[in-house]
Amino acid sequence: ALAACRAQEPPAFTPPGPNVALNKPYTMEPPPNYVDCADDGDKTQLTDGVYSEGYFWVQPQTVGWVRTHPVAITIDLGQPEPIAGLSYSTAAGVADVNWPAEILIMVSDDRQAWTAVGDLIELSNRRGAPPPTPYRLHRFTTDELRAHGRYVALVVDCDPYTVVDEVEVYRGEEAWLSQPQEGKTVTQSPLEYRKGRQVLTAIQSRMKADLSEVLVGLEAANLPGAEKAALRQRADSLRAEVEACEDVPEGF
């Protein structure tokens, strides 16, 4: 069965700059808990420049979690660096292992204020998304960032397994260090911010569903055309308000 699940080569990608994450320290929250690839090397393997060979999630070179998501990987680059892109190496397509739904990218100079600069899955899939099956290796990559920071956090949402063997961060242009960050800045930790966004997404989804139900009722209602038009306009305004919401409403 393993022979039939041979890995495929990752898609061609040219890094936009040198890998400034190479051999840099990182933290993981929560700690890895997937026993088939757990070893003492988990503390250094994600930035050692060595990619695993063989069936991915039983290799000691990989780092894994099971029934634990999201997880946060925070790399300390040692000093503020301009950041042009990233790479996240993983595998999926068999044994109930799926591709990540989201990899939120956040940067910081002090681990106090964090700026969300994009979703690596969304950015990478612009170049082509991997098929759900069969088994294959894949690197989610981007060269579209224009950020800077000493710390780079990847908050990975993947259920039920998260397995990765290497993360790379590519250096951008020196001038970016003096430019304002583009993105939402928060004082929460990356993991706390991502969990809060999950709640917000659920709230928005429910509000949109309720609004759609109201609109169905509106179309069936025996009302003058002008009144229906005014209510449709109000519904459009409410939908825009829901979509623009960036935080869980106070007291929710």
Care to describe what's here?
Helix 2 (190-220) runs antiparallel to helix 3 (225-244). 23% of the residues lie in helices and 29% in strands. The strands form 2 sheets. Strands 1, 3, 4, 5, 6, 7, 9 and 10 form an 8-stranded antiparallel beta sheet that branches. A two-stranded antiparallel sheet has the order 2-8. The radius of gyration is 21 Å and the shape is globular. With 252 residues, the chain is an alpha+beta fold. The chain contains 3 helices and 10 strands. It has helices at residues 120-125, 190-220, 225-244, and strands at 26-29, 63-66, 71-92, 102-108, 114-119, 136-142, 147-157, 161-164, 166-171, 184-186. The model is unreliable at 1-10 (pLDDT under 50).
Mean pLDDT, all residues: 92
Compute the CA-based radius of gyration: 21 Å
Count of DSSP E strands?
Answer: 10
Give the class from helix and strand content and strand pairing. alpha+beta
Q: What percent of the residues sit in helical stretches (DSSP H or I)? A: 10-25%
Number of helices: 3
Low-confidence stretches: 1-10
Span between termini? 50 Å
Beta fraction: 25-35%
The major pleated sheet works out as: 8 strands, antiparallel
Q: Which word captures the global form? A: globular
State the assembly state of the protein chains. Answer: single chain
Which series of helices and strands comes N to C?
EEEEEHEEEEEHH
